[in-house]
Fold this sequence. Notes:
This protein is α+β, with helices and mostly antiparallel strands. It has helices at about 20-30, 35-40, 65-75, 80, 90-100; strands at about 5-10, 45-50, 55-60, 85-90.
Amino acid sequence: MPRYIGISKHAPSECPGANKRIQEAWQKIQGQLESTMNKHGVKVVAGPYHADPAHMTVAIVEAASQDAVTDFLMDSRLAEVQNIELYRATELMEMFKAGAERGTLY
């Protein structure tokens, strides 16, 4: 199953630890996360981890496609309360093997 790395960030003023309105929104979102993940076939395999002291978290998820992860982020409303970068994850040794098969460019 493909894996994806999600990196999310928010401004200090939008931190759920400092902003009551945002904290309430997060509580609403968290109450629906499991069912929304199941709906889109998304499984967390690592994290989410908070990158101290930044206002940033990192998670690795599995899903059938990047579209499934994006749909989950939109449907769960996580994308409405933070900026999210989403990347396809490849194990480093797999990347090295694929690069060796392609040969060098320079």
